[in-house]
Amino acid sequence: MIELDGSGGGGQLVRTALGLSALTGEAFEMENVRGARSNAGLRHQHVAATRAVAAVCDADVEGDEVGSETVRFEPGPVNAGDVEVTVGTAGNLTLVFDALLPVAYALDDTLTVAVEEAGTDVPHAPPIDYQRHAKLPLLREYGVDATVDVDKRGFYPDGGGAATLTLDPSDATALDLSSRDSIKRLAVYSVATTELRAAEVAHRQAAHVENALDLDVEIEANADYVGAPSAGSVLVVVAEYEHSRAGFARLGERGTPSESVADSVVQDFRDFRRSGAAVDANLGDQLLPFLAVAGGEVAVPEATDHVDTCLDVLDAFGYPVAVEERADHVLLSRTE
Question: Which end of the chain is less crowded, N or C, counting CB atoms within 10 A of the terminal residue's CB?
Answer without folding.
Answer: C
